[in-house]
Amino acid sequence: MYTASSAILDALTEAGVEYLFANFGSDHPGLIEAIAQARAENRPCPQVITSPTEMVAMSAAHGFAQARGRAQAVLVHVDCGTQALGGAVHNAAKGRVPVLIIAGMSPATQEGEARGSRNEFIQWIQDVPDQRGLVRGYVRYENEIRVGANARQIVHRALQFAHSAPSGPVYVTATREVLESEVPRVEQDMSRWQPLAPSGLNPDAAREIAGALAAAERPLIVTSFIGRSADAVQELVALAEQLGIGVIESVPNHMNFPTTHPCYLGVQWNERRQNQALAAADLVLVIDSDVPWIGAVNRPGGSARIIHIDADPLKQQMPLWYIGATLQCQADAAQALAQIRTALGEFASDPERVARRREHLAKEHAAWQRGVSEREQPRDVLTAEYLVAAIRDAIGEDAIVVSESVTNFHVVSQHLRRTRPGTIFSSGGGSLGYNGGAAVGVKLARPDALVVAICGDGSYLFSQPSTVHWMARAYQAPFLHVVLNNGGWRAPRQAVLSVHPDGIAAKSPKIDIDFPQPPDYAGIAAAAGGAHAERVQSIAEVGPALERALHAVRVEKRAAVIDAQVA
Ligand SMILES: Cc1ncc(C[n+]2csc(CCOP(=O)(O)OP(=O)(O)O)c2C)c(N)n1
Ligand SMILES: [Mg+2]
Prior knowledge:
With about 575 residues, the protein is an alpha/beta fold. It contains 22 helices and 18 strands.
C-alpha cells in the first residue's frame, strides 16, 4: 500500500528532513501506518521524535533550523494541536526560521464513504471553520493537501517557501481520508524544488552605499541577525575592517560580529538611555534588523543619513514600522556586502580618514570592554554578570548557547563575548518558552557540540521543562540548562515602572509578579528526565556547580540544570 501519507514521508526524506517532531492524534493513522510500513520495509523515513507537548516540538525544530539552516517537520493534531503550538509559531515567524508544520484535519465524511471516515465522537468536535486561519498571520505559506496524488509536490512547494528569504514557518494540512488515499509513487527531482536564489543590490544602490560609507566621518552599522549567515558575518568583518566602521548589535538573536573585534561597539536591548555611538554617527547602515533602536529613548542624530538593507525591508508582517531611511534595499546581506566592497574600488580611498576612524573605534571598543570586565567582578551577592562570565569561561568559544534571559538578555550578550557565528541564538520572537525545546533541537542538529540554555525563571516554566527534559533523555540530547532565578517576572515590573514611575504599583511591594514559593526548578528536570540538579546562591558555589554540571553533560551524557539565585 502506498498512500498520501507514504508520499509525504518520502517527500520529507528526499528534501533532507531528518526529524519529525510528532504529537500524534486520531487524525494520523495514515501517517503512523506509513511510518511503520517504511520501517518494516527498511525504507528511509525521518526519525520520529515523540514530543509530549507541541510548543516544545516546534521550539526544537526552531533550534535545529537555527543550528543547521534546514527546516524539520512538526506533526500536530488538527486544530487543537495547532493551537497548542502556541507562541512557538510566532517565534519562528518573527525569527525567520524555516519549519514545516503538518496537521491533520477532521475526516470529511461520516458514513464510511472512504477509508478514514469519522468513527470517533471527537471528529465532530474538532471540525472547525478555518483551521488554517489559526496560523495564517504567521506562516509564509499554508495549504490543504486536497488530493493525495500531489501531496509530495505540496510538501516541496511549502519547503520552497520556508527556505526562501525571508524564510519562516509553513503549514500544510490534510483530512484523514486524504492521508489514507492510495496514490502513485512519483519521485521528485529535487533540483526543481530549490529555494529562491538570494538576491543582491541593484548596482546603483551598491555604488551609492559604497560612496556614502567611504565619505562618512563616523559610519556605523547596526544589525540584529546578519549572523544567520556565517558568510555575511565574514563580509561584515571585512567591510568594517577595510573602512574602519563601528558595529553595534541591537536586540541580537545571532552571533553577528566577533565581540572581541576592535570595530565592535557593543549591544543594546531595552536600556533606557541614548547609545553614544548611534548619536555620534553621521551615516547609519542598518542591515538585517527588526528593531535597530527604540526611537523614544535612543536614536541616530537628526542629520545622520540612514540606509537600510534587509531581505524584507518593508517588514511586511509589521503594521507599524519606519526608521527614516533614505535608501531601502531588498537584498541578501552577504551578497549586498560583497557588492559594496567591490563598488568601493570606484572611490578614492582616504587612508587618513580610515586611520582616524580606526583609532577612534579602538578606543571606544577598549572602553566598552573595560566596562564589561568591571561589571563581571565578584560582588557580595551573586550577580548575573558574574555568573554569565563564569559560564563563558567554563564552556569555551565553540559551545552553542540558547538565550531566553529577558531582563538579563543584555547581560548574556555582553558577558558571553561570543566570537564565532552560530554560537548563540535567541528565538527572534517574543513568546516565552523557546529555550528548553530549542536546546534539544540544537543538540540534535549538532550532536558533538556542548549546548547551553540560559533562561529566566519565568521562561524556564514557560518552556515546559518536564517535556523538555523527558525528550532530552529519551533522544540523547543532553544540555546544560541555567536558570537565572530572580524570584519571578522582573520584566513586567520594569514595564510598569517605565510607564508609571510614580504610580501606586511602583510603591507596592506586591504586584503579582513574584514567585514567593518557587518550584524546585532543577528538581523538575531531575524527575522528568534524570537530569543532574544543582542550586547555587553564592559566588563560591558557582565554579564547583558548573564543574559538576558539565561533567554530567559531557561525561554522563545527561542534562544538568543549575537553578542560580541571582540578584
Ligand atoms: C508566552 C508569553 N507570555 C507572557 C509574556 C509576557 N512576559 C514578558 S517577560 C515576562 C516575565 C519573564 O520572566 P523571567 O523569564 O523570569 O525573566 P525576568 O523578567 O525575570 O528577567 C512575561 C510574563 C511573554 N512574553 N510571552
Ligand atoms: Mg525572572
